[in-house]
């Protein structure tokens, strides 16, 4: 059933991966640089990895970023997926709702951030992690929606109709037929939401309050004095931990699944 | 389906763990001072000492430039007790009624500040602000590539520096520099003068390697650029990393700037904020703080506690003569729109 | 299944509060005036919209469109084969590839962009390598050029293109391809007639995301372009910050958002009509 892969295609893919990881390699190398300013190589050291963990500002910012990214990803993925499913059957999709769903993608970040801040301060909503989470959910919903919706648009209804004919409840149909079929889209949407959240500066900056500085906000602030190699060290660790966790999860799952049919789900 | 459950539960569990870790660090009941400033703007130990001595917590949050700070305060995102705007921003914030007047009785150490930096035009009676650090915009150049005497803004226009000139990425700084070169005030509202200055900048454009405020240091250190408009404090930093770099305040004069302490309207800890400002102005604390961050210390009484090395640095401690040649950037009111449109012309290469 | 429509209400509620309401404030501001300190004056005016039709700002908008379109096309050319490769890999490898592509984008954006500076500057890594192998004698000027900006944009938005196209490709019925090749279709014809039409929704989604995000990106032009060009996003940014002209900034944003939405709907309509026709043809 599998096509033979064109060797040119593999070569292309490896070149793109190399392109994507080229800057990462630089970050890795310069995390071992003795000099505090990251533009000149002056010698090898591990000291930044040590001082990183005793820097309470960086650690706080990292924790805030992770909390916000994970929470907002979960909420946005659920809401965005629900929207995509709900709008699937509306033959004439409401232009208003669609426009609403595309709006966060086309509105410049600074406008999103400032206007949300105006809203929150109008209603005396205390600024902090929750306001950042709300903001991130608001723009992430759209990204999740467009990806899941494009998956759904290419999907037939036969299986679901068959399931319902055989007496499955709507929930059972959803859980056993629809969800597995759109799952790759849901996951791709979640990955996108997480990526956007953990890397957002502009919107977070405006809706943040005391004690909710995220990593991007902290790093932007550092630029004036020069970004220290501690941040390079942190990025390096983040990459290794992420890749490590992915491989670990994969390995655990393969162990549990041994003997079963290979799955086509991305996780 | 199992995989989905597995995925969902992992996400949930990890978010809960992180949530717990994030809240675990908070110790309740203590008074909290919300400090909003540039990143790494204070010596960490000095902040810890203050927390210990007064039994309070300091929340140190950061912004990246004055305009971000203003937009945020204006939209109602205050909740901060001490902020650190620059000079012209202090003036703007006073006009927009965003600052709380200071109670000088709570800041007796204010008298330690050098007279050179008291009662400046952006806040004539220091009713709202106390200076934190100051600097001047001048020319930094690399002696390896730039031969001969550099003493005028016009030197930037020399053809041999084509593609090697660095300028600050700021409309008022760049146009102000060209205004100074032409002998005008850096805050003029005369549109003919501005036009003349802008025409000069357009002549300079082919020589410009990049506009950059934050990373101009790296570009000078790595010798990407040979000559450029640089703040004195940054110049000290550059020279420490690359001894070939020299600094001059041009004969036409330059722009002087300062960062200041101020207290935004709506603070809930005004007295604590004043206590903090006063503490930072203590001579010994001051010396410790500025030695560590490497900025200029406006505190006269702190001189005796500073190291010889610090005092000998002419880029940190500018001479009276150099300071006398400088001018503060003033709010230009409606003319700002003129500056902004010209700036867009300069950047986009269109008219 | 009609009843499932009410499911959309939580999302509509959420977006109404946290998106439509704040946007309404922005639209209102775009019709207001401001005093010399940047404070809003509550008097109606159309000036902020009229100002856009200055050749300067129209020109900037044009530059922005050109950059966005070039980025989208390049991203598509790079990402489609990659997504195709991933979608045809084994299940385990699919997952690993997808994440390998996204993980670098979890680390900070500024840090990634500065890493490109280290690579591209005149005494940077790329120039040193090229000079050491003897391909060039003089360092090439790569940084602070339009090319560097384009490279930075393409780099940043590759995942935005790969993810939706992958999702579409993964879903494709591969039996169709087998049938086509059984019937003697060449690979290229099979791709053109079967794969491409079936992944159109993915291509469209990816293109919309890349196109709009490029137009909204300002840091790449500043860092890799040496801040020597002005994009619409840079100007909007300046209006809210340095220039303290919220009404004009709001007006520019409204113009930008509306023109983008119109483009998206035109895309979608073109896509849908093709799609529907194809379906009818099959039936």
Briefly summarize what is shown.
The complex is a heterotrimer of chains A (267), B (351) and C (283). Chain A has 267 residues and is mostly helical. Chain A has helices at 7-30, 47-54, 56-88, 95-106, 109-122, 129-153, 158-165, 170-199, 202-207, 215-222, 229-257.
Please tell me how large the radius of gyration of chain C is. 23 Å
Q: How would you describe the shape of chain A? A: globular
Main beta-sheet annotation of chain A = none
Largest interface: A-C, 101 and 97 residues
Kindly give the count of domains of chain C: 1
Enumerate the strands of the largest sheet of chain C in spatial order, edge to edge or round the barrel.
1-2
Mean pLDDT of chain A: 85
User: What is the overall silhouette of chain C?
Assistant: globular
Beta strands of chain A, count: 0
Q: Supply the number of helical segments of chain A.
A: 11
Output the helix-strand order of chain C: HEEHHHHHHHHHHHH
Q: What are the low-pLDDT stretches of chain A, counting only 5+ consecutive residues below 50?
A: 259-267
CATH class of chain C: Mainly Alpha
Enumerate the spans of chain C where pLDDT stays under 50 for 5 or more consecutive residues.
Answer: none
Mean pLDDT of chain C: 88
E-strand count of chain C = 2
What fraction of residues of chain A sit in β-strands? under 5%
Describe the structure.
The complex is a heterotrimer of chains A (267), B (351) and C (283). With 267 residues, chain A is mostly helical. Chain A contains eleven helices and no strands. Chain A has helices spanning 7-30, 47-54, 56-88, 95-106, 109-122, 129-153, 158-165, 170-199, 202-207, 215-222, 229-257. In chain A, helix 3 packs antiparallel against helix 8 (170-199) and helix 4 (95-106) packs across helix 6. Chain A is globular. With 351 residues, chain B is α/β, with parallel strands linked by helices. Chain B folds into two domains: 29-134 and 257-319, 3-Layer(aba) Sandwich (D-Maltodextrin-Binding Protein, domain 2), CATH 3.40.190.10; 135-256 and 322-348, D-Maltodextrin-Binding Protein, domain 2 (3-Layer(aba) Sandwich), CATH 3.40.190. Chain B is built from 13 helices and ten strands. In chain B, strands 4, 5, 6, 7, 8, 9 and 10 form a seven-stranded mixed sheet that branches. Chain B has a three-stranded parallel sheet with strand order 2-1-3, with helices on one face. In chain B, helix 5 packs across helix 6 and helix 6 (191-204) packs parallel to helix 13 (336-348). Chain B is globular and about 60 Å long. The termini of chain B are far apart. The relative contact order of chain B is 0.17. Mean pLDDT of chain B is 89; it is low at 16-27. Chain C is mostly helical and 283 residues long. Helix content of chain C is 73%, strand content 1%. Chain C contains 13 helices and two strands. Chain C has helices spanning 9-30, 47-50, 55-87, 91-102, 109-120, 125-133, 146-171, 174-182, 187-198, 200-216, 219-223, 232-240, 246-282, and strands spanning 33-34, 40-41. In chain C, helix 3 packs across helix 10 (200-216), helix 7 packs antiparallel against helix 10 (200-216) and helix 12 runs antiparallel to helix 13. The longest helix of chain C has 37 residues, at 246-282. The model of chain C has no long low-confidence stretch (mean pLDDT 88). Chains in contact: A-B, A-C, B-C. Chains A and C meet through helix 1, helix 3, helix 4, helix 5 and helix 6 of A and helix 1, helix 3, helix 4, helix 5 and helix 7 of C.
